[in-house]
Amino acid sequence: MTERRSHHSAATAARYLGALALLAVGIDHIEQYYVDFYRAIPTIGTLFVLNFISALIVGLALLAPLGRIPARVRERLLTLLAISGIGIAAGTLAGLLVSENGGLFGFMEVGYRGAIVLSIAFDVATVLLLGAFLILRALPRDGVAHHLIPRKELPR
To answer: Please, are residues 62 and 81 in contact by the beta-carbon 8 Å criterion?
Structure first.
């Protein structure tokens, strides 16, 4: 029972830490939108705002208490949210790398200022933590991989 509780605690910690890292990704982008005037860059400014909004929605949903939702729906919702968070962070990182190495929508980022390093760190943390959350949830909870054991066919 202790191993099962530990397994669940690790998955929950990865979920919450991943959600916080995702929120940090969004906050970093909205800060850059206003402070470093990314709002003046066509398309890129809009993408920064959309990044903030999507990170805020998914991050808060991952932090929300979902105990009243039926277990089957809750599990699917958490999977969808975690995959969405990974997609937001990976997309942000990919966009940054493209803009550093040739430009994105006519904009080219140059150098690795503090805000960019923070964004990279939060993006990577989000992907790793939410990925760990998904993996921990997929692992067998009682030491037996039930999904690997063939089921006997029911008589017809």
So the answer is: yes
| Placement of tokens 């530990």 in the chain | 6
Residue 144 lies in a domain: no
As a whole number of angstroms, the distance between CA 100 and CA 110 comes to: 6
pLDDT digits (tens), the chain, 156 positions:
456 667 788 999 999 999 999 999 999 888 887 876 666 677 777 888 899 999 999 999 999 998 888 989 999 999 999 999 999 999 999 888 777 767 565 565 666 677 778 888 999 999 999 999 999 988 876 554 444 445 555 555
Please tell me the total count of domains within the chain.
1
CA distances from 84 to 4, 27, 93, 102, 116 (A): 27, 17, 14, 27, 22
